[in-house]
């Protein structure tokens, strides 16, 4: 089976601190991977996507960056967090046809 | 930019009632999915519809894709507290771009016992 792991599940960080959220995928090779952010009870904002190692596309210019050092690893980072970076971060992969998304459990980030 | 609008934004009903939520767009999609998300978890795929006019049933849930493939509805019969959650629709394009899914803003459903 194909599984998406995200960690940590929750994170409380002070303003100005760095961030690193990790996503790993099992059971598939060369997946298209995505980072989304979700405000409470609302839809998903696409932040970054990657079609392969070292390939990152940014959808929204902001305080965050992403990297894909390995085929099944996708990392979301920030050098200095802002209060507005608080939210629920979701990693996802798409099906081979690109018509369906499968999500990890998410990371709740609170910047204080 | 393709936009998907969901309505209503919030819905609170009593157990046993029926309900319908809607997902509308001015864009044509090659496929449309519905997801349910519970607090603190990622969305889980419920169904994918790909043909205009298609109707799919999943137990008490009925999903319909509009004839023009611009809209969809989700109907729940005899809602139960376990149906509570955020329902998201997402539209897929056939452009071949890796960025292929557009998500709606969601409908927060609460079913009261």
Largest interface: A-B, 26 and 26 residues
Query: Secondary-structure element order of chain B, as H and E?
Result: EEEEEEEEEEE
Q: Which range best describes the helical content of chain B: under 10%, 10-25%, 25-40%, 40-55%, 55-70% or over 70%?
A: under 10%
Main beta-sheet strand count, sense and barrel state of chain B: 6 strands, mixed
Strand content of chain A: over 45%
Oligomer: heterodimer
Radius of gyration of chain B: 14 Å
Given the helix and strand composition of chain A, which structural class is it? mainly beta
Report on the architecture of this protein.
The complex is a heterodimer of chains A (112) and B (113). By secondary structure, chain A is mainly β. Helices cover 0% and strands 57% of the residues of chain A. Chain A contains no helices and eleven strands. Chain A has strands at residues 3-7, 10-13, 19-26, 33-38, 44-52, 55-58, 65-70, 73-78, 87-94, 101-103, 107-111. Chain B has 113 residues and is mostly beta strands. Chain B has one domain (5-112): Immunoglobulin-like (Sandwich), CATH 2.60.40.10. Chain B contains no helices and eleven strands. Chain B has strands spanning 5-7, 10-14, 19-24, 31-37, 44-49, 55-58, 61-65, 71-76, 85-92, 101-103, 107-112. In chain B, the strands form two sheets. In chain B, strands 2, 4, 5, 9, 10 and 11 form a six-stranded mixed β-sheet that branches. The N and C termini of chain B lie far apart (40 Å).
Structure summary:
With about 110 residues, chain A is mainly beta. Chain A is built from no helices and 11 strands. In chain A, strands 2, 4, 5, 6, 9, 10 and 11 form a 7-stranded mixed sheet that branches. A 4-stranded antiparallel sheet of chain A has the order 1-3-8-7, with no helix packed on it.
Topology diagram in text:
The complex is a heterodimer of chains A (112) and B (113).
Chain A: E1 3-7, E2 10-13, E3 19-26, E4 33-38, E5 44-52, E6 55-58, E7 65-70, E8 73-78, E9 87-94, E10 101-103, E11 107-111
Parallel strand pairs in A: 2-11
Antiparallel strand pairs in A: 1-3, 3-8, 4-5, 4-9, 5-6, 7-8, 9-10, 9-11
Chain B: E1 5-7, E2 10-14, E3 19-24, E4 31-37, E5 44-49, E6 55-58, E7 61-65, E8 71-76, E9 85-92, E10 101-103, E11 107-112
Parallel strand pairs in B: 2-11
Antiparallel strand pairs in B: 1-3, 3-8, 4-5, 4-9, 6-7, 7-8, 9-10, 9-11
